[in-house]
Amino acid sequence: MLITRPKERVEELCFLLEDEGAEVLSLPVLELRPPEDPRPLAAAAESIQRYRWVVFASPSAVEAVMEALREAGTVERMRHVRVAAVGPRTARTAEGFGLQVAAEPAEATGLGLFEAIRPELHPEDEVLLPAAEEGRRELELALREQGVRVTRVTAYRTTPAELSPEAQQMLREAPPDVVLFASPRTAELFLEAAGRERLGQARVVAIGPTTAGALSRLGVEVAAVAARPTPEGLVEAAIRAIHG
Asked: What are the tens digits of pLDDT across the range 19-41?
């Protein structure tokens, strides 16, 4: 079973898959890096109390903001800011830092998160949106259309991770039975780096409908889609893909 997520995000997933008896190969096609210009994130952390909401779209965004708050000495001020998280894993990460999550959508998407907090938004509210440099813009646009003031800052960026000759050889000699994709970008980069033929007869699992749609547009058949964008949800989807 092949996992293409960045290495910072796969430990729990690998453990759960191995507990189910799977032989897991982690082959990340993305690396997480700090923003090229850290000043906007640092400035937001220094004045965190001005925001009514901080809206987190990924665990990596939570980690980046909390590190910026620690460096600014303003962690305690987060108690006065409402926190929204896009999905269970992001919420768990926030709670692990002692944050109280006020909103978490049933549908773990940016627009789902917007719908979850929309009844509590007021014109001129200030919302901090820490995101990946190349992250999707749907949530930001929806917030702006609601009349709130959005400060979007780059919390981290992702760069392609080169597949080594050894990894390429491993894919040729031992094609995976199941491949898990957790974002459209990982799917695109894997196909660019390894080629569609490296998927062979593998059953492909997507973390959610957005990733499944991207895979379909790339010409890849999806065997199963996780009901929840969590490690547990991916494991359940992988089991469905294997057993049909």
From this structure: 888 888 788 888 889 999 999 99
- What does pTM read for this prediction? 0.77
Q: Could you give the residue ranges of the DSSP H alpha helices within 20-58?
A: 39-46
Question: In what side-by-side order are the strands of the sheet with 101-103?
Answer: 30-33, 149-160, 126-132, 53-56, 82-85, 101-103
The beta-strand segments (E) located in the chain are 2-3, 25-26, 30-33, 53-56, 82-85, 101-103, 126-132, 149-160, 178-181, 203-206, 224-225
134-186 confidence digits (pLDDT tens) = 878 889 999 999 999 999 999 999 888 887 788 778 788 878 889 999 888 88
Q: List domains and CATH numbers for the chain.
A: 2-30+160-243 (3.40.50.10090), 37-157 (3.40.50.10090)
pLDDT at 193: 79
Residue type, 194: A
Q: Nearest Cα to 136, choosing from 62, 214, 64, 78?
A: 214
